[in-house]
Amino acid sequence: MKRWYLYLIAVPLGLGALVYLVGLNFSINFADIWSSYHQPKNGQRDVGKIPEGNAVSEEVLRLRHKHQLRPLTEREEGTKIEDLPNGIYGFSMCRVVAVRATRGNSFSLEIQKHDGITFYVGYASDEEIDQYLTRQKNFHILASPHPRKGASSLFEIPVEFVSKCEERPVGDGYLFDLFVTAIPELQT
Prior knowledge:
Number of strands: 8
Mean pLDDT: 77
Strand order of the largest sheet: 1-2-3-4-6
Helix content: 25-40%
Order of helices and strands: HHHEEEEHEEEE
Number of helices: 4
Radius of gyration: 21 Å
Structural class: alpha+beta
Distance between the termini: 73 Å
Largest sheet: 5 strands, mixed
C-alpha cells in the first residue's frame, strides 16, 4: 500500500515531462497562425500589390515554420545581428547591422537568422533566382518584401553573399538591388 503514493506522484510528473518535451519539439507560434488565418489571401490579380498592414504571405509563414523561427522581441530590437540568437526573424533595410521587431510603415526586407547564417528574404523574378541557384557570378537580384508583377517567387540569400545592396524608391516603397559578385563556394 505504501507504493501507491509513489505512483500517484510519479505518473503525473512523467506525463508532465512528456508534454513539456513534446511541446519543445512541436512549438507553434500562435501569433503567426492567427495572423495568417485572419488576413486576406493574395489571388493572382493581387500580385504586385502591396499587402495591407503587416499581412504576411503563406509562403513566408511556411519558411518561418520550416526553420522554427520566432519573431524578434522588443527587448532584442536594436541589438547587433551577430549578438542575436539563431532562430529569429525581423526587418531591416540594406545595412543589416540591427533588425527591427516589426516592419511598421517602412518597406523593409525580412531578415532571418538560422543555422548561424543571416539571410535576406524577399521576392524576385524566376530568372534572377535561377542565376543564384546555378551559382553564377556578377549578377543582380531586384528583391522586394512583397510579390510584384514579374517577381512573385520567394527566395532567401545569405547576407554575406551580397557584396552591395542599394535601396531604390518605387512608388510608396522600396526595391532592393542585391549585387552578388561571387558566391563563396565558387572561390578557390
